[in-house]
Hints:
The protein is an all-beta fold. The protein has no helices and eleven strands. The relative contact order is 0.32.
Amino acid sequence: HVQLVESGGGSMQVGGSLRLSCVASGDTIGRYCMGWFRQIPDKEREGVAGIESDGSTSYADSVKGRFTASLDSASNTASLRMNNLRPEDTALYYCAAGWKGGSCDYRYKGQGTQVTVS
Length: 118
């Protein structure tokens, strides 16, 4: 099955930008539905963006217009471009891949990369 490794997190000032990458190995990323999630301690996981195998995307209202998710088949990488960052975007971000039945099951997850906005 696919293995996922995220990178690109860090500390950023309010209004700044970051680009997160999720490199896949063990399988072709385009076979899966993909998603980006974020986790804050003691809070529920939040879905940030979804990427279907056809490349179509969807976003949480909290990031719509600021975040852009994409897939690059050539590098087997999913990316999340985050613009106009806010303090409430601070979280551990991770990518997930899965198989789509009615909805994506996101069964494969990376370890995450920390984003801190202040």
